[in-house]
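Long-time lurker, first post. I've been practising inverse folding by hand and with some scripts of my own, and I keep getting stuck on stretches where the structure tokens seem ambiguous. Below is the full token string for one chain I'm working on. Before anyone asks, I'm not after the true native sequence, just a reasonable design that respects the backbone. If someone could post their per-position residues I'd love to compare against what I wrote down in my notebook.
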């Protein structure tokens, strides 16, 4: 956990598609509305994480750079039936 109850996923030094897979695994185990910070260094994460959120019903709130890593803030969306995912 990170300050304020935000869950942090350290995906630094992982290459596509691992940052998305790590984020997905963590998000699946959290209640709707939980904030997740994903730290990533793979350039493709800039595209892949927002796309994953749009496809999965999560909200990609922000992308900033911090200490040489991308920081993606995601809000866990509602559960969706597999047919819609």
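-- Answer (accepted) --
I ran through it position by position. Result:
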């Amino acid at each position: 956990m990170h300050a304020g109850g935000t869950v942090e996923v350290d995906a630094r030094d992982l290459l596509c598609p691992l940052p998305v897979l790590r984020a997905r695994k963590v998000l699946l185990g959290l209640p709707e509305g939980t904030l997740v910070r994903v730290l990533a260094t793979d350039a493709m994460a800039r595209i892949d994480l927002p796309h994953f959120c749009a496809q999965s019903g999560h909200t990609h709130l922000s992308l900033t750079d911090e200490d040489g890593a991308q920081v993606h803030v995601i809000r866990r969306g509602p559960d969706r039936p597999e047919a819609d995912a």
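A couple of notes from the structure itself: The CA atoms of residues 33 and 76 lie 5 Å apart. The mean pLDDT is 92. Happy to go over any region you disagree with.
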